[in-house]
Amino acid sequence: MEWSYLKTYYLDSQTVNPSSGYLRCPSCGFLTRNPEMGDPAVACPECSDHGKPRFHWPVLEAYTLFSMIREMMNRGEKRADTEVERVTSELANICRSSVQTETVESLLRQIHNMSCAEAEKDGKLAGLINSHLEVPSECFDDVLCGLIDTEAVTDEHKVVVVLTMSLTEVLLNDFLANVLVANRVNLPVARKCVRACETYTSKNALFKDIVGESIQRTIKGAVEASKSSKSFLDDLQCIRNRRNAFIHGDPDAISREHARRAFSVAVESFAVFADLFNRHCRLERETVPDVPRAS
């Protein structure tokens, strides 16, 4: 999703919650956001069953994690914006010319993504700065120090990436357990089986044995069906790699852009996994006599 859209609808207003409103039929497992299904008297549009309270989805841990992700993203963006505005003002004074915050933010992002070897090679860092700012030669060192000392990536941004991977893992584990339930495995046993698969590779192998295709291929189909952004899988793989690099000792592995991509994944994960549930976690049962159905 475009960052401007995410920021407007999911961060600034916080009136839209992508994790809320899902209801699941206890008889056939059909998952929907149709509010009419909240009335037990209304029949499930898939199996016609009625009279039983519907389950809320997703699991509580997913609700909690998304709330934490949104709070951390909100704090991180506010702190980063304040820092970028500060350094923009300082650079304008040093360069004695007008400097745009968008220019500084783009420059900081590129500097963060540049390795030390790249920065030192053929004056690449100096060239990058001069391509964005009109810097008097006698002021270059001051500009360079100002940019390097700017903390445009906050600790909150790093937390967002780590928590988003935790969120997707919670959703994936719940999905896999319910795939087993749909194949007549008792839920407590199914959850134990999923917990025993500690790595993504082992979970993928379990899923492939049951369904016949990889998790990634299945998610790709769900992304298309749920009309999520085409970048969802790429973003998910990117933040998985960044999270792993970070927790294994690279403190600079996560950038502000990575946090924004992670927030997009967090928002879209619910629609993607809801589609996965309806594809692979449906329960077999006999239909019941027709009553007025949810439209």
Specify Rg, calculated over alpha carbons: 24 Å
How are the strands of the biggest sheet laid out side by side?
2-1-3
Coarse shape: elongated
Structural class label? mainly alpha
Taken together, the total number of domains comes to 3
* End-to-end Cα distance: 29 Å
Task: Report on this structure.
62% of the residues lie in helices and 3% in strands. The protein is built from 12 helices and 3 strands, in the order αβββααααααααααα. It has helices at residues 3-12, 60-95, 101-112, 116-120, 124-132, 140-148, 155-182, 187-196, 200-211, 215-225, 232-247, 256-280; strands spanning 22-24, 31-32, 55-57. Strands 2-1-3 form a 3-stranded antiparallel sheet. Helix 10 packs across helix 12 (256-280). The chain is elongated and about 75 Å long.
